[in-house]
């Protein structure tokens, strides 16, 4: 089969790779019908995630069809259409028993496209299938469903829930890429008073407005002053960092009010300065996190009911074999306007246009 292989920082290609097989009785093998590219994949290609070894197939998000299941798999069977979660969960370790699947110590956590071969291929082996794949309703389109593998649960859990967004809050989201836009959309579930989006790209600021931002700013325009102006000088109750660079994190700490929350979602490859000389007196809570995907079933139900604006985030589609072009387009988002790319996506069966 073919897969998108990491060969070292700055080096990757669509190559022939061995077909995956069931290795453990809890495994499934999934034919990949739709896959997407994550900002974390770009961090891997830059060398920011040294645990990823050369020769690894990248990717940790997919929609597909089960083609083989180990004898201990109980929740899905061959032929089932499923969402492959970005997080794999053994279900037995102390962290999994607390629904902290991202910290699984039983062989799971973030392993796809990280510690084992991932989803950017024609087929993928998924360990611990009963907790790591989710059956999908036929009414949910591939390119909508695939966004629930990572960006929506990540934005919701690590951004909105960790940030403790409450009704009436002022929420600032620094970075209006896919994760930031998903954070804006899911923050809206809690009826904040206002949402401020910060991004240097005009197209992404406009996308943020479409998804619910009430005010937008370029980071060069001192958005901390905008947040203060809108809140009687206090700043935002919750600031979500969705970029993963030091300047963005440090901006978040300047935008938050006393007693507020900074929820870091971005994947950082370099140190950021923590200005405790300013923050120690402000009662600020700073959270970090890897998504646990405990919210995925609820988000799937909301998406199937049309309550999440998933389709608005997919700006480019490609065939699966167009992986190298898709990486180029996604990696040059400032020039191409790409938000999320979907490869191999098919429409839901019951939404097919009837022929005369």
TrEMBL record:
The record's GO molecular-function terms, alphabetically, read: oxidoreductase activity; zinc ion binding
The Enoyl reductase (ER) domain sits at 8-343
**Pfam annotation, one family:** ADH_zinc_N
Record keywords, A-Z: Metal-binding, Oxidoreductase, Zinc
Query: SUPFAM superfamilies per the record?
Result: GroES-like, NAD(P)-binding Rossmann-fold domains
Cross-referenced SMART domains: PKS_ER
This protein's cofactor list reads: Zn(2+)
InterPro entries for this protein: ADH-like_C, ADH-like_N, ADH_Zn_CS, ER, GroES-like_sf, NAD(P)-bd_dom_sf
Family, per the entry?
Belongs to the zinc-containing alcohol dehydrogenase family.
Query: What's the protein called, per UniProt?
Result: Alcohol dehydrogenase
């Amino acid at each position: 089969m073919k897969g998108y292989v990491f060969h070292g920082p700055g080096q990757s290609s669509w190559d022939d790779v061995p077909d995956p097989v069931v290795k453990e009785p809890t495994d499934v093998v999934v034919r990949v019908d739709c896959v997407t590219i994550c900002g974390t994949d770009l961090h891997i290609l830059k060398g920011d995630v040294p645990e990823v070894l050369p020769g690894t197939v990248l990717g940790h998000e997919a929609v597909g069809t089960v083609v083989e299941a180990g004898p201990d798999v109980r929740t899905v069977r061959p032929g089932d259409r499923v969402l492959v979660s970005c997080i794999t969960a053994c279900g037995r370790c102390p962290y999994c028993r607390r629904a902290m699947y991202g910290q699984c110590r039983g062989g799971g956590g973030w392993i796809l496209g990280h510690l084992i071969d991932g989803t950017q291929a024609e087929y993928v082996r998924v360990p611990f299938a009963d907790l790591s794949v989710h059956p999908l309703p036929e009414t949910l389109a591939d390119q909508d469903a695939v966004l629930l593998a990572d960006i929506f649960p990540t934005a919701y859990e690590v951004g909105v829930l960790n940030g403790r967004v409450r009704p009436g809050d002022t929420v600032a989201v620094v970075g209006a890429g896919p994760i930031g836009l998903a954070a804006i959309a899911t923050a809206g579930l809690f009826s904040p008073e206002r949402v401020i989006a910060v991004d240097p790209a005009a197209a992404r600021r406009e996308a943020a407005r479409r998804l619910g931002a009430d005010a937008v700013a370029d980071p060069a325009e001192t958005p901390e002053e905008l947040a203060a102006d809108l809140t009687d000088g206090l700043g935002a109750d919750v600031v979500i960092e969705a970029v993963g660079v030091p300047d963005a994190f440090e901006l978040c700490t300047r935008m938050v009010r006393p007693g507020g929350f900074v929820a870091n979602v971005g994947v950082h490859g370099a140190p950021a300065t923590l200005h405790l000389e300013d923050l120690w007196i402000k009662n600020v809570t700073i959270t970090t996190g890897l998504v646990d995907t405990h919210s995925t079933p609820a988000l799937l139900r909301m998406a199937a009911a049309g309550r999440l604006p998933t389709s608005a985030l997919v700006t480019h589609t490609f065939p699966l074999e167009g992986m190298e072009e898709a990486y180029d387009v996604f990696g040059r988002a400032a020039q191409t306007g790409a938000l999320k790319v979907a490869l191999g996506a098919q429409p839901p069966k019951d939404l097919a246009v009837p022929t005369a």
